[in-house]
Design a protein that fits this description.
single chain, alpha+beta, 123 residues
């Protein structure tokens, strides 16, 4: 008689999960993928990511959201420097102020192109 050899299948090692945020950030990756300025949804994702890293504080005031700067190192990035200094007061800006800033410009497309240039400049 022959003994049962058992299960000869190799056991796979456990899957290692990586929860790190990849480089570049989603805003830059999407802008490069589409070769177009970021949309409002993409900017929202970017702001939420910064809030998750405790670099920006997002507070709701009535129907408006205010982004407050927590990490001064963010001002080295051209897009965020533009938003905090030109749209806001250097320390914070609101989303309604960003919307009004886009309407004040002659064309919203010029602001979107400028944001696209700021996003892709450091890549």
């Amino acid at each position: 008689m022959v003994r049962n050899p058992g299960n000869k299948k190799q056991k796979f090692p456990p899957i290692k999960h990586s929860y790190e945020i990849p480089e570049p950030d989603p805003l830059k990756a999407k802008a490069l993928l589409r070769i177009a300025p970021p949309t409002a949804q993409e900017l929202s994702v970017y702001f939420l990511e910064l809030a998750g890293q405790n670099k920006v504080e997002i507070t709701q005031v009535n129907d408006d959201y205010i982004l407050k700067l927590r990490d001064k190192a963010l001002l080295k990035e051209p897009l965020l420097r533009y938003l905090f200094e030109k749209v806001g007061n250097g320390q914070e800006f609101s989303l309604t102020a960003l919307k009004k800033h886009g309407k004040r410009e002659k064309k919203c497309q010029t602001v979107r192109k400028e944001i696209f240039c700021l996003v892709t400049r450091n890549l």
